[in-house]
């Protein structure tokens, strides 16, 4: 520098100022370089930040789409659940209706067998009496004094009484059988089923605590109780009264047929008397029981679909077991011990 400018023209007076200037220049250049590097890094970071924000926006868009799909799925799930509940209610109502239809079919079959048995037995006994009346041959009691006219009158009266009782019982049972076979299926028709299913669905949708579940309006059981029960008992009484009269008729017939053999007549009479005692025993054990059970069956009005206990707070809750009454502390301990034993 001294050579180039000369001693008088040098811009710096000493070496210290030169070093200070060089240091300041170096530091300024370093600061500029570092600032440029930091700005470039900042620009890269901002670019990455913008890229990340763009990716975040895309992710948020996808997330909103997924939320929307999840919302649609939840709506479909709730819709499916409502349809499933409605279908289950319909299936429950249909199951109860099928139970009612099966009970109706069994009731019709039961009553048909009862009527058939009484009608067949009445026709058989009445036929025996008529055949015996036609086939029995005897002459004028004036020509054969050993034949009492009163005995002939008793035989004719018992024959007519047996035929009348058995004929009326048979005809009444036959007419009742035709009636129940023709009308029995009307209680489980399509219209009855549709009405019952509709009322069950409405009951489930409008259910309140304490409401009793619906039951069919019409049933063969109520029809039998109100229309056929008294006639059935009347036909059964005529049949039960005709049997001992038939035995008396057999006894009278033996005296008319075996008039020449009192021993044979007394033998038939004794056998008829023993048979009458056996009939009285059977009537006492079973006849009154059948008539009583038929008269008292279903008088309380219970039927399929009727709750046998207070509702527990759910639709169709009459299928649940009836709750037991509150017991003492000892019974509670016993119940708890039994429950623990079952759990073990």
Structure description:
The protein has 344 residues and is mainly alpha-helical. Helix content is 77%, strand content 0%. The chain contains seven helices and no strands. The chain has helices at residues 2-5, 15-135, 149-183, 190-205, 220-257, 262-296, 329-343. α2 (15-135) runs antiparallel to α3, α3 (149-183) runs antiparallel to α5 and α5 (220-257) packs antiparallel against α6. It is rod-shaped and about 185 Å long. Residues 1-9, 294-309 and 325-344 have low confidence and may be disordered.
Instruction: Using the alpha-carbon principal axes, give the shape.
Output: rod-shaped
Secondary structure tally, helices: 7
Give the helices and strands as they follow along the chain. HHHHHHH
Q: Kindly, what is the distance between the CA atoms of the first and last residues, rounded to a whole number of angstroms?
A: 110 Å
Mean pLDDT: 77
Question: What's a quick, concise take on this entry?
Answer:
The protein is an all-alpha fold and 344 residues long. It has helices at residues 2-5, 15-135, 149-183, 190-205, 220-257, 262-296, 329-343. Helix content is 77%, strand content 0%.
